[in-house]
């Protein structure tokens, strides 16, 4: 995951995030991060419910990572919660987020 973040930081390609996502977390090409994405989605479902999870997945991809990061922070004592590596968190959290849209999405039930 951190190699993908390094690519995102140096790339000038406007579609870099989508490219990294499709390789690392979409499930295409036996992507290595698919299981991590499944775990992250499960945690979002536990914390916010099915509708909120579907809503998050319809938003830009960085919202998914931000929502996950915020969901696991309060409960990091759980063996099932994995914090995002600092490089990943910093990269996705530095991208523009519409807080009102994210909050509305997370509160949908």
| N- and C-termini, Cα separation | 31 Å
Alpha plus pi helix count: 7
Biggest β-sheet: count, sense, barrel? none
How many E strands? 0
Uncertain runs: none
Helix amount, in percent?
55-70%
Q: Quickly count the domains.
A: 1
Mean pLDDT: 80
What portion of the residues fall into strands of 2 or more residues? under 5%
Radius of gyration: 13 Å
User: What string, H for helix and E for strand, traces the elements in order?
Assistant: HHHHHHH
Structural category: mainly alpha
| Shape descriptor | globular
What would you say about this model in short?
The protein has 109 residues and is mostly helical.
Polypeptide structure, described:
The protein is mainly α. It has one domain (2-107). The protein has 7 helices and no strands. Helix 1 runs antiparallel to helix 2 (16-24), helix 3 packs across helix 4 (50-57) and helix 4 (50-57) runs antiparallel to helix 7. The radius of gyration is 13 Å and the shape is globular. The model has no long low-confidence stretch (mean pLDDT 80).
């Amino acid at each position: 995951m951190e190699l993908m973040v390094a690519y995102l930081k140096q790339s000038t390609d406007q579609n870099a995030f989508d490219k990294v996502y499709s390789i690392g977390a979409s499930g295409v090409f036996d992507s290595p991060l698919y299981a991590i994405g499944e775990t992250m989605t499960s945690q979002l479902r536990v914390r916010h419910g099915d509708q909120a999870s579907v809503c998050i997945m319809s938003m830009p991809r960085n919202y998914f990572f931000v929502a996950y990061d915020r969901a696991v922070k309060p409960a990091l004592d759980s063996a099932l919660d994995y914090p995002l590596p600092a490089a990943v968190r910093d990269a996705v959290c530095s991208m523009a987020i519409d807080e009102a849209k994210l909050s509305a999405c997370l509160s949908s039930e």
